[in-house]
Every structure is written in structure tokens, then in C-alpha cells.
Specification:
The protein has 4 helices and 3 strands; from the N terminus they run αββααβα. By secondary structure, it is α/β, with parallel strands linked by helices. The longest helix has 17 residues. The protein is globular.
Length: 139
């Protein structure tokens, strides 16, 4: 599935004021506090945040954000953003994709998957190549 490109309400305000729209990947739900999945750029920097798709925990009272954003992205989940990232890259000087699915090591693991999909599609990218060490150390 590919993301729909729609007219972004308020885009002219953002553009006029030099503000970048933040595209968001989040659960598909009827909750009013969930951003729709829209790929848009209103600045020469495009920004995309991956929050995970766990609708069961999105509005649940949790002790940590890791519980709320408990989602390991699959290649199929991320595949729908590949074409959109390519489109954003055509119109923006820089495109950033940040993973905030911060349960365990889900964010870096998802970033590695996404980087692989971008490489396969021939989209120039940096970062997201290697997983962090299995055991974290302070020094």
C-alpha cells in the first residue's frame, strides 16, 4: 500500500512562516490524538517520525513511553513509506526519518529494516546501517 498524497490543511501557513510539517507514522485508529499518515513537506527539510502502530496501547495509561510505543516495524509496515520518502526527497534538501518506537531496541532494529528498503529502492540514505551492541556500556 502506498500513502495517499493529499492537500495538507494549513500548508501555506507553515510554508509562509518557514515551518516544517512533521509527517507521522502511527496507528490507524479513530482516536482524535492520532495524526493521519500523510507524507508532506512544507520546508526544505522534511521530517518523518515513526511512533509504531500499536493501537492497543496508544491511549492506555502506561508507566513508560516504551510501553505505549511497543511496536517493532516489519518490512511490510515500512514499505509503504519508501515511495513517499522518494517523493519528499525530490522536493526537500534533506529528509529525516526518526524512529520513536522505543520499546527495547525496536527503534534501531526498525531503522535498519527501513534503511535496507531504501537501499533496495536506490534511494540515497545515511544512517541506520548497524544495530547497537547487544549489551550497552557506559564506557
Amino acid at each position: 500500500a502506498r500513502l495517499a498524497h493529499v492537500v495538507l490543511p494549513g500548508a501555506s501557513f507553515l510554508e509562509k512562516n518557514g515551518l516544517a510539517y512533521v509527517s507521522v507514522d502511527s496507528p490507524r485508529t479513530r482516536a482524535s490524538n492520532v495524526m493521519p499518515r500523510i507524507a508532506a513537506a512544507t520546508h526544505d527539510v522534511a521530517y518523518l517520525r515513526f511512533h509504531g502502530r500499536n493501537w492497543k496501547t496508544w491511549n492506555k495509561k502506561t508507566k513508560t513511553s516504551g510501553e505505549r510505543f511497543d511496536w517493532l516495524y516489519s518490512p511490510e509496515d515500512l514499505e509503504e513509506w519508501v515511495g513517499s520518502i522518494a517523493s519528499l526527497a525530490e522536493g526537500a534538501r534533506e529528509v529525516y526519518a526518526m524512529f520513536n518506537n522505543n520499546r527495547d531496541d525496536f527503534a534501531p532494529r526498525s531503522a535498519v529494516i527501513f534503511r535496507g528498503l531504501l537501499d533496495e529502492a536506490g534511494i540515497a540514505a545515511t544512517g541506520g546501517l548497524d544495530l547497537p551492541p547487544a549489551e550497552m556500556t557506559l564506557f
